[in-house]
Amino acid sequence: PGTAIVADPSKQHGACMLNTHYYDIERECHECGRPFLFYAEEQRYWYEELEFPVDADCIRCYPCRRVTQDIDRTVQRYEELVAVVDPSLDVQAELASHRVTLVQAGRFHVRQLEHVRGFLNRHPDHPQSPDIRARISAIA
After folding, report:
1. What global pTM score does this model have?
2. Tell me: the pLDDT tens digits for 4-20?
3. By the 8 A CB rule, do 77 and 98 touch?
4. Cα-Cα-Cα-Cα dihedral of 127, 129, 132, 136, to 10°?
5. Cα 98 from Cα 102, distance rounded (Å)
6. If 60 and its partner were Cys, which of 3, 33, 64, 82 is the partner (CB 3.0–4.6 Å)?
7. Nearest CA-CA partner of 106 in 43, 16, 31
8. What is the pLDDT of residues 52-86, one digit of tens each?
């Protein structure tokens, strides 16, 4: 706390009152409950470079934001793989792995693991099968 950075209101969007300065702000993470700082420099980046609305607020600490971003990337990759018409064995293994990740993250229902178990039963010798089996065991 105590850091102040001069803002460029001409680069800010979406608010009636624009910021003239950014200050480090103490927050509590909505995911893990830990206190963290929403740094002044980070605010400048959000509002002036990324063009987030000035009303947007940081509600997660950096580690929790990284986890959320990783899960979002996994969802995006999963959707790309599901669209493959005739998936190779490696694509099917990657799909199975992503299903496990998304079940662990709470994005998929645990019933999705039946698809994964089906893959493992059909392809027990695939190089990714032991890792996928271990990750399923950690869930159950």
Report:
1. 0.75
2. 899 998 898 877 788 88
3. yes
4. -160
5. 6
6. 64
7. 31
8. 998 888 999 999 999 999 999 999 999 999 999 99
